[in-house]
Queue: 2 jobs
Job 1
Amino acid sequence: MAHLVTLIPGDGIGPEVAHATRIVLEATGVEFRWDVQEAGAAVMEREGTPLPERVLASIRRSRAALKGPITTPVGTGFRSVNVALRQDLDLFAAVRPSRSLPGVRTHHPPLDLVVIRENTEDLYAGIEFEVGSPQAARLRDLLQELDGVQVPQDAGVTVKPISVTGTRRIVQFAFDFARRGRRRNITLGHKANIMWYSDGVFLATALQERAANPDVDFLAMEVDELAMWLAWEPETLDVILVPNLYGDILSDVCAGLVGGLGLAPGANLGWEYAVFEPAHGSAPDIAGRGLADPVAMVLSGALMLRHLSEQDAAGAVDVAVARVLAEGTHVTPDLGGNGSTDEMAKALATQVRSTR
Ligand code: NAD
């Protein structure tokens, strides 16, 4: 039976890498019914919102979406489509694997890292007070009254909520993930020493959950120290569990460690829905020129195939990526080649067909 999947091409390089991914996934022989849904800046002009309800309705029907990157314009008054999707569908776990790939030169021994990022809370919760606004003035007065703190008049404020409930589910998810994938250990990153009542909740809740999961090695450290270990000896790390903002930053660091953003896939998972997307953004600097590396989105497609219980097809995509990268003749400029996005997609599809 064909899988119903919502396909959001996105903008910038999104449509190019989405098209490439579709070619590669269809080469597996798995049948899809794509429900193509546009979202983002162009849609905002036509429909008055960058994330129309029809997009969410489509994902609620299909339960699985493959999504290209979407530009977040600064200061338009609209929430990021990416953040909105994660919150509206309660996709509380972002899983971003970064694995060394053949033919890709890096500065470290072979790595196999996974960042698990809480995806709905923290400074990305969208609780924003604009500098000079009446709301910011009221908040300033309230904070003065409650805690005696003096927030400067010309400050904008972003609030950082981290809940016990939100933390418990991401920590339980991380332990299950580590156990199912036979991972070596989980390292949690926090700044509970500075942010007692937000990162403090993250750390304390995780330490409680740890007691219920003694079979998985678990270590907590301050996130700045974790960043140092990522730069110094990343091979000592395995699963990295972090709140939202640190996860956004550290997953890009991990992508850089294994060859760059063009190679890093991602999954946003909740109890009901799943949205698969590359870790990279819309890359306006190279959009429309056939230069975009499709691998991050293709590997996101492989993650989706596994989620749809198409393990063999997912394996074929992984093998095809490894072969095309190792061969190095059809790769895009970020990997030192001069192939186009389409050329690389065709080479990947040919490899997929040869293994099916
Ligand atoms: P970016 O990831 O788009 O680009 C950073 C650098 O990496 C650029 O030099 C770009 O050319 C390169 N790059 C990224 N993907 C590549 C690929 N597939 N192949 C080759 N090179 C690639 O980050 P940015 O420039 O900070 O963000 C651009 C826009 O994307 C912003 O509006 C940002 O908010 C948005 N964004 C969206 C998502 C998402 O949709 N999930 C994620 C991150 C950023």
Job 2
Amino acid sequence: MIADAPLASPADLPAPDPAFRADLVALRRELHQHPELGFQEHRTAQRLRDWLTERGFEPSAPMAGTGFVVDIHGDRPGPMVAYRADMDALPIHEATDAPYRSLTPGAMHACGHDAHMTVACGVAVLARERRAEFAGTVRVLFQPAEEVSPSGAPAMIQAGALSGVEAIYAIHMDPSQAVGRFGFRVGSLTAACAPFRVTVRSERSGHSARPHEAVDTVWVASQIANELYQLPGRVTDARKAAVLTICRFRGGDALNVIPSEVEFGGTLRCVDGETLGFLREKIRRVAGALGAAYKADVDVDFDITLPAVVNTTEEVRRATEAATDLFGPEAAMPIQLPSMGGEDFAYYLQEIPGCMVRVGSASGPDTRYPLHHARFDLDEGALPMAARLMAEVCHRHLNDSSSRRS
Ligand code: NI
């Protein structure tokens, strides 16, 4: 689906430092050409390490597999703020005609993580240029495996990436908005997501002519599926967004044999964790009760639940003001409704305050394809702008924090 909203032309935007922009664009294109899937970002991590080392930074030892951090110290000691980028690509075969398109068949940076890493490098460069102006440390995190489960953020936290950090910021590209615009939301930005699987079994498989002599697992599974679809909004407060989608339904081979096993699964997504916990329990009970009523064995399995990204008030205010001050009041847009998608930045926000900013990245037909589309691409004008914004946000965070302490 492609949005039809009018987009600001990139020519209207303030001109960034051309050398800085060229440096970022070159890095982004190189990362884009060599996408790697979650926890396999070896070449990507090495390229980032080389890029940073050539410019005088000192990347940490590897953490969480391919991840690492870079600390940029201000001239005086003080608090620490973090900025996070994700490194992995998706198992999608790129369909763009871009000269920098993926050279790896079946892998593509279709979620803009190439841009996120590039912006993080830009934040490091800009933070260091201004180190005389702040007390404390800007820590830039390069995190593996945002797209897979279990994902990279908990592993980074486990490895100590947040130790001593008082708040964390990040961006996500947004092809539904024009380049030069930044989206902000206090509270939930994404939904909590629980993947699930329901298995219906019986030893009494049988002839399609006489289902009453068997246990019809296909019929029982479809009764359960129907019931599950009706739960959001019937047993939960309709004002609290929840969506259950079944994406897989498997069972049977022959057209005249009732199979002994049927499995289906999908995702349950809710903006608030309480609703999700309640529905998870209801799904177990409803599936179990229907299985018992029709004499089938039913198992319900939930994978790891990804929490919602919940942005904190103070951090959103700071980032919104920075966007307005740098790029004008038109640049900062409130986001009315949370996305029902998921983002593992949520794990950091369970530990410390922070804010994820949506970065408009569209300027024409080639850059309006949605995230995870085989033709996804972005207007590279977003790179230097996002780097300037997020370096400014980190800088302001440290200054605010230091003045609170003194
Ligand atoms: Ni993403």
